[in-house]
Amino acid sequence: MRSTPHKSLAVAACAAAALTALSLPTTPASAAPLGAAACTPTQVIANGGFENGTSPWSQSSTSVITNRAGESAHGGTHFAWLNGVGSTHTDTLSQSVTIPSGCSTATLTFWLHIDTDETTTTTAYDKLTAKIGSTTLATYSNLDKNTGYVQKSFDVSGFAGQTVTVAFTGKEDSSLQTSFVVDDIALATSDGSTPPADSTRTPSAPTYTVDLASDTSGTSWSGHESTTFTNASSTALSEVYLRLWDNAHGSCSAMPITVSNVTGGTAGDLSVDCTALRIDLPTPLAQGQSATIGFDLGITVPSGADRFGYDGAFSNIGNALPVLAIRDAAGWHLDPYTNNGESFYSLAADFKVTLDHPTGLLVPATGTSVDTPGSSGRTLTTATASKVRDFAWAAGPFNKISGTSAAGTAVNIYSVSDISSADAQSMLATAKSAVDTHAARFGAYPYGELDAVIDNNYWFGGMEYPGFVLDLVSTTALTHEIGHQWWYGIVGDDEYNSPWLDEAFTDYATDLAQNKTGTGCWNSVSWASSAEKITNSMAYWDAHSSRYSTVVYGYGKCALHDLRRVLGDSVMAKLLKDYAASHWYGVSTTAEFKAAAQAVTSTDLTSLWTQHRIDG
Length: 616
Prior knowledge:
The protein is globular and about 70 Å long. Helix 3 runs parallel beside helix 4 and helix 4 (about 475-485) crosses helix 5. It is built from 10 helices and 32 strands. Helices cover about 20% and strands about 35% of the residues.
């Protein structure tokens, strides 16, 4: 988000001080990267969901990693399909990984689906072997066929400090196919005192199904929502919380978001200014178990050119769908809503949303949309989105223009009535360029189409949602919001407690996209107090709002420019691309990024983090 119009333009162009000013101690070039003996909880498998092409996986043929018809993904659109030929055949899939030393816990997990035409109940004709290094973890066969995916988990702590290959080998005999379908592979490490970070974030793998109908203006919506989720934690899940974020735009006596007739659980108390609703589950949900809750939903859009509000005939409906809060080692994340930035923290999820609306209203939305005729004078817009953190849409008599980026991404510009045709065309060109530029640096854009709603009345400048952004007519602002597709959308973070992880990284990406090298900005840095840090949470910035943009956006991206100068352009570029791949659809933390940066250099980065006030 750009918390005020052209926020980063108000910050001086960011750059690094000369390296001599950093006075960073170095070790000999031949030394191993520092910090190798320490363990920062992390996930070391890259592209485990196969949504970012095939790299760094090795496969026996180009058809193993696929999205072809006949099988489906556990999440997203791609998966690894081994065998399924029906004749003597071998398929392999492997990736070399380094498990950090000092990690007392390392857990390999993957989701497996097996279907077969074999009819025997006694003979394993076709087999899949899972190995790490030379050690066989498990062997599965046609006898293990199942109707859906099952998660498999293995303790691989004994390989800490080693570079090993995680490998899957599928072998079929001469007749009758067996398909071994693998997806969402992860290898999480920790020091034993903290469980593997990704596995303890729960509820996980949520899917949302939503059916809503609007009034004639698109400012009132009602219908039903349901969500299915799994408990990824070893601690039972007795309740879940729904975040009703947009109740912050009203009051507890007049809530814009209402939930009623809950099924699959019992509605408890509203809390956090009515932005959190507890749902007690009928029985505690053990690790690996799934549950579904449903409820009737009402949405009333307030007046105002806001991320949730209407500006004349045009409605923006961001953060209106209730989404599951996260519980991790720190407990439930029930942070308050902030209007100065973002509070949103959610895991990647799948959405199918059907919006019934007057045909005269265009409805851009997260995901890929298909319009079909509804009842008289109405249209059904069905949007599907995979591995996204939220779902947003707009409604109004927009002017729409479309194009396709050079890399093949469909881009749609929806403009309110006072945006000129020339400005709309300019924003279309900017969006096509930006999505390809960011994708080349950080990984292929995975969300299908990209929709941008353009309105110069937005007080906040711009706002990001997966595959959907709100923006002013501004090349810099639109490039920034599209950059958030990677830094917030694909690589998630706790936006309330670590806002720099998406805002600073996105502003840095925006600089790179606009060929800005950031020369000299750290020379003009001036801290307001000893408590002011780039890594402060929104609790701090809400109390020091005038400094939020300067420090988080400006100083934050400047720190990344400084890091680039220490590492070198090519090493920094590879660091960010690899870091994005290893956190693809996951959650980034400051500690994980610092560890990843330290791992690519023999230069001790401690002084850099201290100078730039990057804690964690």
